[in-house]
Amino acid sequence: MTAAYSQLAAHFGKVAALSNAVGILQWDSDVMMPKGAAETRAESMALLHVLRHGMVTDPRIGDWLDTADGDTGLGDWERANLREIRRSWTVETALPADLVEASSKAISASEMAWRQARADADFKALLPYLAEVLKLQREIGRAKGEKLGLSAYDALLNDYEPGGRSAKIDALFDDLADFLPGFIEEVLAVQARRPASPAPEGPFPVEAQRALGLQMMAALGYDFERGRLDISTHPFCGGADSDVRITTRYDETDFSRALMGVLHETGHALYEQGRPQAWLSQPVGHARGMSLHESQSLLVEMQACRSREFIGFAAPKMLEAFGGSGPAWQADVLWRRYTQVQRGLIRVDADEVTYPAHVILRYRIEKALIADEMPLSELPGVWNAQMRELLGVTPPDDRLGCLQDIHWPSGGWGYFPTYTLGAMTAAQIFDAACRAEPEILPGIGRGDFKPLVGWLRANIHGLGSLYETDELLTRATGRPLDAGVFKAHLKRRYMGE
User: What is stated as this protein's family in its record (predicted)?
Assistant: First the structure.
C-alpha cells in the first residue's frame, strides 16, 4: 500500500472525528440546548463546518488520490474508499469557505426561527430566515452543478442520493401521481366495507409509551450501549459513529404515533450501528445514500412492523403497557388500525399508501424553488393547492401545512425524494429478504428479528458504500429499483377484503 493511500486514510479519519463532534452538537441543538445558547452554538457550528470543509478540500488530496490510483496493491474496499473520497473532494472543492460558513449560520438561525414559527403557525415569521437559506442553497447548487455538469437541483440531490437524477425521479413520481389518487379511492372503498375498528382508549402516559418504545427497540436489536432515545420537535436519528441516537415525540391521546416514530428511527439506527466496523472512519464505511437509508427505516416501520406477524407479537405488549381491555386490543383489530388508510395533513403520520403523495408535493415544490420558478412567499398557497390535488385535503394553517418539516429550514434541499425512493426500495429489499430467508416472518411473529437483521447486515448494512446504489440493490435483490414491486405490495396489503 502506498504512502499516499495511508495519508488519505489518516486524513479522512480526522475528518470523521470532526464530523462526529458536529453530529453530537447538532443533536444537542435539536434536543436539549436552551434557546439562549443559539447564537453561540451557531458560531461554533459554523467554525466546525468551515474547518471540516478545509480538511476535505486540502490541496494535497488531489495529489494523494492521483498517486494512490496507481497502487496495484489495493483491495476492493480500498478502491471503493478512493472512489468515495474523490466524490467528496470533487463536490467540496466546488464551494468557497465563506459560502460554507454563511450557509451554516443561516441554517442555525432558520432552525431556531422555524421552531417558533411552527408553534405559532406563522410562515411569515420564518420567511426572511428561510429566504436566506434558499438563496445560499441555490448558490451551493449552482457551484456544485458547474463542477459536476449538473443542474443546481441535481447537484443538491447528489449529496443525498449519489448518482440520483431528477429526470429519473420525475418519471417515477409522475407514474405514482397518476396511480395514487384512484388507488386511494379503491382502498378507502374496501375499508368502508369492513367492520369498524374501535380505537384503544387513552390516555396513554408518556412514560408508558417510552417503556413500550424501548421494549420494541430492544426486540429489533438496537444497541443501547451505542445510543439513546430522547424527545424532539421532529423525530430523527443522529449523533455520531458508535453513538447513534434517536428521538420521537409523544401524544397522550394516540400512542401509535410515537411508537411508529420509534420503530422508523430504529430502522435508521440499525443501519448506522450495522455499518462495517473496520471502516467506520472512512468514507467507504458510510451508509450508501439516503434512498437506502430511508429504505431501512421504512422497511422496519412499514414492511415489518405493520405486518400481521408483528402486530400479533406486539398486541399483548401494548395491552400490558397501557392496562387496556376489550376488542380494541385484539391483534386483528389493531392490525386493521395500523394499516388504516386515510387522507391526512402530516407526512410523518401518513400511512404508506398516501405517504408518497406528501413526498411528491415537496419534491415538486423544492425543485421549483431551487430553479427560481416560484416566489418563496407563495409557498403556503402552492402547498395547500397541491395538497388538495394530490390528497384531497387542505391544511387549516401553516403549522399543519408548509411548516411541518424541518428539512428546508435546516438546509435539506434535495432530500425529500429519497423518502419515496426509499419506500420503493424497502418493498423490494423486504421481498427479497423474505424469499431468501423463510424464517424472517415467523421470527417477527415471535418478536425475533435476528433472521431479518442478520440478512440486512450481510446484504446492506455491513457493505457500507462498497458498491454504488444500483449495484448494491441488484446484488441484494436480483434487479435494480422496480416500482412494480412497491405497487404489488400496496395492492396485496390494502386491497384484500
Answer: Belongs to the peptidase M32 family.
- Name the residue among 84, 344, 127, 118 with its Cα closest to residue 233: 118
Q: Contact at 8 Å (CB) between 419 and 172? A: no
Quote the pLDDT of residue 234: 82
Between the alpha carbon of residue 430 and those of residues 28, 30, 314, 416, 465, the distances in Å are: 34, 32, 20, 22, 20
Q: Count Cα atoms within 13 angstroms, Cβ side, for 29.
A: 24
Mean pLDDT across 406-419: 96
User: Nearest to residue 396, comparing CAs of 383, 405, 409?
Assistant: 383
Cell of 301: 416501520
C-alpha of 333 from chain center: 29
C-alpha cell at 406: 424541518
Give CA–CA dist 465/143, Å, rounded.
25
pLDDT digits (tens, 9 = 90+) for 457-476: 999 999 999 999 999 999 99
102: its cell numbers: 454563511
Which residues define the annotated binding site for Zn(2+)?
A: 264, 268, 294
> What is d(CA 447, CA 337) in angstroms, rounded to the nearest whole number?
20
Count CA within 13 A, CB hemisphere, residue 450. 2
Pairing state of beta strands 243-248 and 237-240? antiparallel
CATH 1.10.1370.30 in the chain, residues?
166-494
User: Which residues are identified as catalytic?
Assistant: 265
Query: What is the pLDDT of the chain when averaged over all its residues?
Result: 95
CATH topology of domain 166-494: Neurolysin; domain 3 (1.10.1370)
Is the pTM value of this prediction over 0.85?
Answer: yes
